[in-house]
């Protein structure tokens, strides 16, 4: 098995996710590509909406982009809808990506009471799990503190957690921009708790925030987050790389732009997938370089 850049074996002695992500973005460019095998995409690629189609779709993306982009983000739901066989495809997709050196961010948006979050942490962030990934998305709406088992296991094994803050969907704002008794928005409260977890980390903390590229001005202070800012919503949901400037302002250097359908729609030709990813990196680099 090929060694992964910056990954050392052994409990507790791993380089942090923030450091590994920082280097991957430097070397491969600021881009996360999602693997979202929508039925419509399978059909456009000439594949059946079944486990074999799912497997072919995921393998094609991995072969085209696994040695090229910094982060690949499989969306768990599209695999789970095929039951245990779909989950087996997800596990094998994760393994292949890890061998090709891209960081794997599993988009599972998990969240629950702390004792159950402990089990989610074991599923995704414990190196002995078949579903072990570099980082996972998490939902903080049962309280950021309920995610502590994920933060702890991630810190122990060099993993990362991306916490939803201001999501790209229009329905998110009524909850996330609501203000508490101290006048802070829910999103700002989440970001402040992330800042505390990342305090002092260099070059970048391992707890990220998810802020959609579609949200416009955040009304939040992002200056202390000191962690990666995942920006989905580009392409298919209507945001462009230029929108990143409005959303993130002086926090642009920490932004990890994320595209799924916009890049995947170029498939199944591997060269076309690579060209779409290269275009996305170039567009985002041009904006991020202006910061
Ligand atoms: O956590 C995410 O990745 C996420 C957060 C968010 O606020 N908005 C959002 O679209 N996502 C995910 O990012 C992907 C966006 O896909 P496209 O719209 O095809 O680029 C989907 O897998 C979403 O589940």
Automatic annotation (TrEMBL):
Record domain Orotidine 5'-phosphate decarboxylase: where: 30-276
A GO molecular-function annotation: orotidine-5'-phosphate decarboxylase activity
Coiled-coil residue spans: none
Source organism, top-level taxon: Bacteria
Metabolic or biological pathway: Pyrimidine metabolism; UMP biosynthesis via de novo pathway; UMP from orotate: step 2/2
Classification via InterPro entries: Aldolase_TIM, OMPdecase_AS, OMPdecase_type-2, OMPdeCOase_dom, RibuloseP-bd_barrel
EC number: 4.1.1.23
Catalytic function, reaction form: orotidine 5'-phosphate + H(+) = UMP + CO2
Stated family: Belongs to the OMP decarboxylase family. Type 2 subfamily.
Protein name, UniProt field: Orotidine 5'-phosphate decarboxylase
Species in which this protein is naturally found: Micromonospora sediminimaris
């Amino acid at each position: 098995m090929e060694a992964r850049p910056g990954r050392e074996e052994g409990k507790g002695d791993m380089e942090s996710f923030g450091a590994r992500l920082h280097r991957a973005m430097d070397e491969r460019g600021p881009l996360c590509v999602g693997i979202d095998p929508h039925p419509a995409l399978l059909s456009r690629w000439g594949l059946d909406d079944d486990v074999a189609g799912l497997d072919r779709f995921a393998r094609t993306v991995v072969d085209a982009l696994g040695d090229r982009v910094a982060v690949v983000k499989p969306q768990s739901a599209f695999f789970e809808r095929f039951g245990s066989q779909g989950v087996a495809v997800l596990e094998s997709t994760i393994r292949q990506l890890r061998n090709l050196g891209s960081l794997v961010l599993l988009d599972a948006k998990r969240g629950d009471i702390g004792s159950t979050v402990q089990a989610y942490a074991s599923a995704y962030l414990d190196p002995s799990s078949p579903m072990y990934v570099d980082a996972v998305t998490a939902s903080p709406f049962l309280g950021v503190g309920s995610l502590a088992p994920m933060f702890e296991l991630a810190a122990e094994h060099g993993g990362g957690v991306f916490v939803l803050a201001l999501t790209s969907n229009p329905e998110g704002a009524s909850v996330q921009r609501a203000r508490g008794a101290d006048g802070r928005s829910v999103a700002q409260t989440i970001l402040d708790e992330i800042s505390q977890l990342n305090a002092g980390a260099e070059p970048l903390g391992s707890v990220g925030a998810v802020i959609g590229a579609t949200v416009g001005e955040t009304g939040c202070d992002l200056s202390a987050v000191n962690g990666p800012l995942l920006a989905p919503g580009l392409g298919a949901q209507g945001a462009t790389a230029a929108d990143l400037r409005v959303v993130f302002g002086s926090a642009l250097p920490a932004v990890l732009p994320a595209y799924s359908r916009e890049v995947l729609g170029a498939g199944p030709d591997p060269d076309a997938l690579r060209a779409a990813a290269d275009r996305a990196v170039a567009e985002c680099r041009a904006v991020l370089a202006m910061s």
